[in-house]
Amino acid sequence: MNVFKSAPRLAGKVAIITGGASGYGEGIVKRFAQEGAKVLLTDINERGGKAVAGSNPDAISFFKADVGDQEDWRKVIETAKSRYGRLDCLVNNAGTTYHNKATSAVTEQDFDRCFRINVKGVFFGSQVFLPELIKQGEGGTMINVASVGATRPRPGLVWYNASKGAVWNVSVQQASCLQEFIAADTVAGFQVTKGLASEYGAHKIRINSVCPLLGGTGLFEAFSGQPDTPLNRAKFISNVPLQRLCEPEDVAGACLFFASDDSSFVTGINMEVDGGRAI
Question: Could you tell me the CATH number of the domain that includes residue 79?
Answer without folding.
Answer: 3.40.50.720
